[in-house]
Amino acid sequence: MPTPLPETEDAATAELAALAAAIAHHNQLYHTDDAPEISDADYDALVRRNAAIEAAFPQLIRADSPSVQVGAAPAGHLAKVAHARPMFSLDNAFNAEEVADFLGRVRRYLKLADDDAVALTAEPKIDGLSCSIRYENRRLVRALTRGDGQIGEDVTANVRTIADIPPTLPDDAPDVFEVRGEVYMAKDDFAALNARLLAEAEGTSREARQFANPRNAAAGSLRQKDAAVTRERPLRFFAWGWGETSDLPGDTQSAVIAAIRAWGFPVAEAFRPGGTLEDALATYARIEAERADLRFDIDGVVYKVDRLDWQQRLGFVGRAPRWAIAHKFPAQQAQTTLERIDIQVGRTGKLTPVARLTPVTVGGVVVTNATLHNADEIARLNVWPGDRVVLQRAGDVIPQIVDNLSRDESRGAWPFPAQCPECHSAAEREPGEVDFRCSGGLICPAQRVERLRHFASRHALDIEGLGITNVESFVRDGLIHTPADIYRLTKEALLARERWAEISAQNLIDAIDAKRAPPLDRFLFALGIRHVGEITARDLARRYRTWAAFQDMIARMAARRVDLKPALGESDEKFLARTARELAAIVETPGIGPEVALALADFFAEEHNTQAVADLLGQVTPAELVHETRESPVTGKTIVFTGTLETMSRDEAKAQAEALGARVSGSVSAKTDLVVAGPGAGSKLKKAGDLGIEVIDEAAWAAIVAAST
Ligand code: ZN
Q1: Whole-angstrom Cα distance, residue 54 to residue 72?
Q2: Fewer CB within 10 A of the terminal residue: the chain, N end or C end?
Q3: Distance CA 475, CA 398 (A)
Q4: What are 425-440's pLDDT values in tens digits?
């Protein structure tokens, strides 16, 4: 069972703070240092825990909430700039009475009679990221995110890549004008982006980050350090207001918005609902009815007092204007029957349970499926086929099962399948992980394209001309199924295909033939064994040197595993963890722990995999790793580089260290032997000091390198 949610606000506040710090730390390791300390599944568990607490305590969501920043480059890299005029936030109304109260407050404040009309504008409230875009002399000079309302982040370069935002204003625009609005991502663009991120995820033992919803995708895409990344993301913009201005092109909200539209900005479709409560609510109903058909997510309707002189008089309470309110849509829920639970296999082997539902309309959308995430979620909801469940569509486009009306704990949890539905290989779950994975990596049809692409990729077998496009089309047409099939490709088979000519076909065949004796480390990496990335593959190749010696070690692991039995009263989880430790002792390789050992044993325990490897060994012969390193005082040591290196790149330093037989790590731990610190070294330097690890500067490092040449 998952950990229960915190019971008090204090406990929730403390845990949210701890989660924000932990997630920021792991983002830093993942994105900047390229040295993750925890598995993707553990990372996702932190993110999900954070989201669950935020859902239960929405009032406690932090300004730096990881749910906004997940997938973004680490926070703190964008310059902070004060807004010329604060960006306000809106009060919310959740029902008609609260909208009536809002209108009542406006009338009383302005000393109007109860039946005096108050002209309003109404616009869909778009779920995106608020931005303020400043034009001086009609040129875009700066764009800031909302930030905390007072201080935003400078995203000028990023905003310039958004086609909806004009770089200049026409001659009749004021000298200074800040256009405010929402950067967002359309629902179909969001789905396409997630699909692309998945396709691009290098097969380097890690999975693609996926954005949870269009709002997160918009925020993550806009808040990039490198505007070139933003340019690749399909961001859009709607204007809904303005900040500092030298002049206003109208005396009502709707007139100014009309001018902004005339300058070339998309604006949220503005309605003028007339002056009564009934008019406002009718407009709300109309927008809500259109909600499902919109290309973007909205979560309510914003009413604003149209007259700007009235807005001026009404002013603000705290950060919220008295002249505007957001009328939120209720969460959309419906009941239906869970007909069955299917297991989907992702491109990297992750097994995801999907609820097949009796079709039901939720908020205007017919829903037939909902994700159940993983086995823990199935247990938490206690769902079995045939149960009545409550579905909810919130801001997210993916519907969720939020309750089970047929809950009956005496049934226990629905048993998660022990086999992959695609290839019938064993489904494995590692200690401490939430997801089951198919262990049939080399033969599983669901994983085929990803595995073959990885096999041929630059850091693996490096077969030139065999990229994702060719792999996909060869697999689709049944030309290749396993890595060995690549080596059985013939020029004739290629020439029989469209758009293949003599030269291109010969080039690919030559490129494949050139890789029939790959170095052992590349061969091991290319197999796509879970947790066996480039560094681990190199460590294994250094330790075993030949395929025969490596295979002998695998055989010893298999033999040992047969003898291991759970002790009396030992839980499955504890037994697996103990098994992994025993296996690691057999692998006996520096830098390789129980997690990798277990993954190796599992991979080669799967007969499908051993067959595929044997087949492959009929085509290629892994080359013995020749002693490529020079002896030096750092041979066999683990080194961490930190801070700014002034005479060489980090890559060059790493290559130097490896040529001297040292291992380079991204983080300082008790296993670190030496830290090379340049200017600006921070926490790693401090940690090295705490652990009493030797620290040298770049000049001393250069001397070591020079001495051993
Ligand atoms: Zn499978």
Answers
A1: 19
A2: N
A3: 30
A4: 899 888 778 899 998 8
419 Cα to the center of ligand 1, angstroms: 8
Please give the full DSSP string across 584-648, using - where no structure is assigned: HHHH--TT--HHHHHHHHHHHHSHHHHHHHHHHHTT--PBP----PPP-TTTT-EEEEES--SSS
Instruction: Quick: pLDDT tens for 454-468.
Output: 999 988 999 998 988
pLDDT of residue 204: 41
The most confident of the ranges 396-400, 552-556, 588-592 is 552-556
DSSP state at residue 461: T
Ligand 1 centroid distance, CA of 201 (Å): 19
Are 557 and 580 in contact, with CB atoms under 8 Å apart? Answer: no
Residue 507 carries which side chain, given as an amino acid letter? N
In the three-class reduction of DSSP (H, G, I as helix; E, B as strand; rest coil), residue 184 is classed as strand
Question: What does the alpha-carbon distance between residue 465 and residue 276 come to, in Å, rounded to a whole number?
Answer: 67
pLDDT in tens, 655-666: 788 778 888 888
pLDDT digits (tens, 9 = 90+) for 322-357: 999 999 887 778 899 999 999 988 877 889 999 999
Global pTM reads 0.47
Task: For residue 379, count other CB atoms closer than 10 A to its CB.
Answer: 15
- Under DSSP, the state recorded for 382 is T
Report how far residue 179's alpha carbon sits from residue 388's, in angstroms, rounded to the nearest whole number: 48
Output the CA 468–ligand 1 centroid distance in Å.
20
- Give the C-alpha separation, 459 to 526, whole Å: 8
Nearest to 227 by CA among 81, 77, 126, 69: 77
- Gap from CA of 461 to ligand 1 centroid (Å): 23
Phi, psi angles (nearest 5°) of residue 343: -110, 125
**Cα–Cα dist 607/425, whole Å:** 9
Distance 420 CA to ligand 1 centre (A): 5
pLDDT-derived band of residue 75, with 50, 70 and 90 as boundaries? very low
More confident residue, 430 or 66: 430
Which of 294 and 2 is assigned the larger pLDDT?
294
Query: Which string of b and e fits 477-494 if b means at least 16 CB within 10 Å?
Result: eebbbbbbbbbebeeebb
Does residue 125 have an active-site annotation? Answer: yes
Q: How far is CA 33 from CA 28, 36, 379, 699, in A?
A: 7, 8, 36, 22
Between strands 638-642 and 427-428, the pairing is: unpaired
Q: CA–CA separation, 594 vs 164, rounded Å?
A: 51
Write down the pLDDT at residue 395: 52
Q: What is the pLDDT of residues 255-306, one digit of tens each?
A: 999 999 999 999 976 677 777 888 889 999 998 888 878 888 888 999 999 9
Q: Cα–chain-centroid distance for residue 387?
A: 32
Active-site pick, 125, 350, 515, 684? 125
Give the chain's length.
Answer: 709
CB atoms within 10 A of CB 282: 14
3 state SS of 668: coil
pLDDT for residue 627: 55
Share of the chain above pLDDT 70, in %: 92
User: Which strands make up the sheet holding 236-245, listed edge to edge?
Assistant: 139-145, 129-136, 176-184, 236-245
- Phi first, then psi, for residue 60 (nearest 5°) are -100, 5
Half-sphere exposure of 138 (CA within 13 A, CB side): 9
Q: Answer whether 500's CB lies under 8 Å from 494's CB.
A: yes
- The alpha carbon of 140 is separated from its chain's Cα centroid by a whole number of angstroms, namely 31
CA–CA–CA angle 182, 188, 189 (5° rounding): 60
